[in-house]
Design brief:
Blueprint: H1 10-26, H2 35-42, H3 44-64, H4 67-88, H5 92-102, H6 107-117
Helix pairs in contact: 1-4, 2-4, 3-4
Length: 118
């Protein structure tokens, strides 16, 4: 696989499915033993801040680090996104619906439509 190909999402999809089940299972868990339970209990604001922090780390890794670091930081971001979605009550199906609505729509057109709504 070349650097320009993303490759198949099959393995990532399977791992995200497992991780989402783990996140769901930690809701209401012991916050002294589970980082996930602690984050969810802290609420959407704390989760949002953590997602912003992780997103910045991904951006910096892409700009200045190696591919392994980018993959590691992206894994952190995906985990925190799942926790944030759970804390906010947004299902993966809702995210899939949002992606499906955009399929076949130019990113520029989609962004322009969002700007007009604001």
């Amino acid at each position: 696989m070349s650097k320009t190909e993303l490759g198949s999402a099959k393995r990532l999809n399977e791992l995200v499915a497992l991780l989402s089940k783990t996140v769901d299972s930690r809701v209401g868990g012991d916050i002294e033993k589970s980082y996930t339970a602690r984050l969810i209990k802290s609420g959407p604001i704390r989760c949002g801040k953590k997602i912003a922090e992780e997103g910045a780390e991904v951006a910096l890794a892409i700009a200045a680090q190696g591919r392994k670091e980018v993959a590691s930081e992206t894994a952190d971001l995906l985990f925190h996104l799942l926790v944030g979605l759970r804390a906010k009550g947004v299902s993966l199906d809702m995210v899939a619906d949002a992606l499906a609505e955009r399929r076949g729509v130019s990113g520029l057109a989609e962004k322009a439509a969002r700007t007009k709504k604001d």
